[in-house]
Amino acid sequence: MVRRIGGGGEFRLWVPEMTTGRNPDLAIVFRGTPKDDRGRRPPRLVAEVVSEGAEDRDYVEKRQDYWAFGIKEYWIVDPTLRQVLVLIRQGDDWVERTFRGEEVIASELLPGFEGTVAGLWADVEDEG
Q: What pLDDT, on the 0 to 100 scale, is given for residue 92?
């Protein structure tokens, strides 16, 4: 199912209109993904962890860029809100679903995935 997983240092996604690219915090290339014009297999699922003060970049700008790049599924992991927003490409737009607490994060590209949102922060101490 999964061919390759990498972080920001391993993947650089170029959108034709951009002079720079995007480096997702996590990217997954699946088996059977055809090579692009540059001979590389592009990821189909990317995830970004929202940085404090950069919410617009992750929720708005990157959403548009990843759409242009052809990403099939985009996860926005928000540590402040303790939620995961999963965007799935359907037709001409993203279909969104927000997961919180003990909800199992649903993914069309990772059938059988069992991770919960709370599990993402299970060993993190509150800074409050």
A: 94
Q: Is 66 helix (H, G, I), strand (E, B) or coil?
A: helix
Joined together, the tokens standing for residue 24 give 């997702």
Instruction: Tell me: pLDDT of 4 over 50.
Output: no
CB atoms near residue 103 (< 10 Å): 14
For residue 90, give the 3-state DSSP assignment.
Answer: strand
**CA dist., res. 74 & res. 72, Å (int):** 7
pLDDT for 88-115, tens place per residue?
Answer: 999 999 999 999 999 999 999 998 888 9
- Alpha-carbon distance of 78 to 121, in angstroms, equals 11
DSSP-derived 3-state class of residue 65: helix
Task: With beta carbons less than 8 A apart as the criterion, state whether 66 and 22 touch.
Answer: yes
Q: Is the pLDDT of residue 128 over 70?
A: no
